[in-house]
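lol forgot to send this yesterday, sorry. struct tokens for the thing we talked abt
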């Protein structure tokens, strides 16, 4: 019977409306605009997070690989692929997309 290590090195394809994203910071950790590190233990209201799209399923319509997406960190599934941690989201769980290709017709807000 194949074990978990037998799947390493195989190509991965996202299915349906699933999106694989990678965050730049540790779990819950973030920096203020002044550069101060705010630990995960600091309590604040619900806060959305940005992540970079790594792969998309065939039914994803509004985003592409390398786009930045805004999502609720509490509504997610985590997975480790080849030693790196990723998050799997559904397209409907993404609140906003930021990408250079969206410049025309954008809201005027920039990251």
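and heres what i got for the seq, position by position
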């Amino acid at each position: 019977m194949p074990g978990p290590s037998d799947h390493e090195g195989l190509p991965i394809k996202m299915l349906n409306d699933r999106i694989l994203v990678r965050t730049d910071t540790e779990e819950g950790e973030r920096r203020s605009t002044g550069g101060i590190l705010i630990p995960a233990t600091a309590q604040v209201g619900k806060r959305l997070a940005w992540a970079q799209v790594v792969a998309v399923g065939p039914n994803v319509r509004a985003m592409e690989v390398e786009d930045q997406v805004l999502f609720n960190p509490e509504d997610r599934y985590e997975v480790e692929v080849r030693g790196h941690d990723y998050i799997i989201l559904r397209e409907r769980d993404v609140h906003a997309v930021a990408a250079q290709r969206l410049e025309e017709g954008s809201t005027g807000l920039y990251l």
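The longest strand covers residues 49-56. anyway ping me if u want another try
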